Amino acid sequence: MPFSHWLPQPSTASSTTPVGCVCFLGDRPTLLAWLGICVTVPALWLVSGGETRHGAGATPATVDGLLASLGVAVQYIGLAQASAGSGVWPVVAGRVAAVVVVLPGVWRRGPQFRQSPKALVQAVAIGAGAALGLTLYLWATRLQMLALAVVLASLYPAIPTVLGLAMLHEKVSRRQLVGLVSAGTAIVLLTLG
Q1: How many CB atoms are located within 10 Å of the residue 84 CB?
Q2: What pTM value is reported for the model?
Q3: Can you tell me where the transmembrane regions are (predicted)?
Q4: Domain extent at residue 154
């Protein structure tokens, strides 16, 4: 599967789950913002290629992706509940908890996880990038409605999709082009709303 297809698929669940929950927490997006929210789900599906597999059933990878998306959704909602006085400590606590959860598996399968120093530096850089992204998300939830911050954050797959198309010279399908234009439209609607 091309790079530009695999990332957007699970993000649909991580964008839609919190929006439903957020409405129960008191957010009331404007009509324009709701239109942006509604455009986001098909945009993400189209960015991933917009394909469906009939009769194949859910593969283990699809189930894992959906479970991971629900985890991201819970993380988004949980971070947004932190008070402004807590600073970045909610992100720090989440990163530490992630390491604690992963460590037993690494210890159990130690030889399989041995990496070169370069790969370890890359892994730390990726983790730092994720922490920065979560910190910026936390900041966004303090400046605007959670429903809007969640949906805007869920549009991140458009970036690696564009990179895959531009840097790896992957061919863009009509569906992906419509998805990218729709994602841009959703961003405008959410920003104006």
Answers
A1: 9
A2: 0.73
A3: 31-49, 61-82, 88-107, 119-140, 146-168
A4: 3-192
Distance CA 26, CA 79 (A): 16
Summarised one tens digit per residue, pLDDT across range 60-81 is: 776 777 777 777 778 888 888 8
Pick from 161, 191, 185: which is nearest to 7 by CA?
Answer: 161
Which pair of structure tokens corresponds to residue 175? Answer: 């569906």
CA distance 133 to 154: 12
Q: Could you tell me the two tokens for 50?
A: 């917009």
Q: What is the largest CA-CA distance in the chain?
A: 54
pLDDT tier at 114 (50, 70, 90 boundaries)?
confident
For the chain, the domain total comes to 1
Report the half-sphere exposure of 79 (CA within 13 A, side-chain side).
Answer: 31
Cα dihedral across residues 35, 36, 39, 45: positive or negative? negative
Write the single-letter amino acid at 136. Answer: L
Q: 């942006």: which residue's tokens?
A: 36
Q: What is the mean pLDDT of the chain?
A: 80
